[in-house]
UniProtKB/TrEMBL annotation:
Domain DUF402: 75-179
Name assigned to this protein: DUF402 domain-containing protein
Source organism superkingdom: Bacteria
One Pfam family linked to the record: DUF402
Organism: Longispora fulva
Record key words, sorted: Hydrolase
InterPro entries in UniProt: DUF402, FomD-like_sf, Ntdp-like
Keyword Hydrolase in record: yes
GO molecular function: hydrolase activity
Length: 226
């Protein structure tokens, strides 16, 4: 399936046991041989898990959070305006982030299993290790300690997959340090359609990905732009 430009879709992160861990909403910029590009504007609605007292679980170890009773609470995407590119079959997505004043902030490489499409958007399984790369050439790994903690745990990934995740990150880091595509300045001047507004999480956000009982029109919103 191909998503039309301007359509609101969602990107769901799934926990190792298959449950949804978070949901974000965004607009399709393009969907072609280069991948699915999604615009997530500052102020767009997201859903994140919280504990029974309403406290976010994001700062907890996933090993702890997986064994807790959790609920969803609405949040907003802040402070960046973000363009996310998910290349076909890639074990990563690349995020271009701009500050509210329009200044480009950084590239963010999210290492993840290849995105799985469904009628309402995409599902991804995060592999914890990420890479932050600034325009001035400075960079850093993110969540290395958690990645090491989860590698080898039965619910997550084994040593072989962990090695592959690290290698994928190293490959992208080499491209970034060399100023090679996609870190060669492309899309730094991207501007969304001025008619686009921050998006809301659609009512079908928790529909099973394998559901086939709804046609494509069910997943369209009044926000679709030409």
């Amino acid at each position: 399936m191909t998503f039309p430009r301007g359509q609101t879709i969602i990107r769901r992160h799934r926990l190792p046991d298959g449950r949804i861990s978070s949901v974000l909403s965004g607009r399709v910029v393009s969907d072609d041989e280069h991948g699915l590009a999604l615009w997530v504007d500052a102020g767009s609605q997201t859903l994140r898990r919280v504990d029974a007292a309403g406290q976010p679980t994001r700062q907890l170890s996933l090993l702890t959070a997986l064994r807790m009773t959790t609920l969803f609470a609405p949040h907003t995407w802040q402070p960046f305006r973000t363009l996310m590119l998910m290349p076909p079959g890639a074990a990563h997505s690349i995020w271009w982030s701009w500050r509210p004043d329009g200044e480009f902030a950084s590239w963010y490489v999210n290492l993840e299993r290849p995105a799985v499409r469904w009628a309402g958007g995409v599902d991804v399984c995060d592999q914890e290790l990420d890479l932050l790369f600034h325009r001035d050439g400075t960079w850093m790994w993110k969540d290395e300690a958690q990645f090491d903690e989860y590698t080898g745990e039965p619910a997550f990934w084994d040593e072989a997959e962990g090695t592959a995740v690290r290698a994928e990150g190293e490959r992208l880091l080499a491209l970034a340090r060399a100023g090679a595509a996609p870190f060669d300045g492309r899309l730094l001047d991207f501007q969304p359609d001025p008619a686009w507004r921050p998006t809301l999480v659609p009512h079908w956000w928790d529909l099973p990905a394998e559901a086939t009982c709804w046609d494509a029109d069910y997943f369209r919103t009044e926000d679709v732009s030409d």
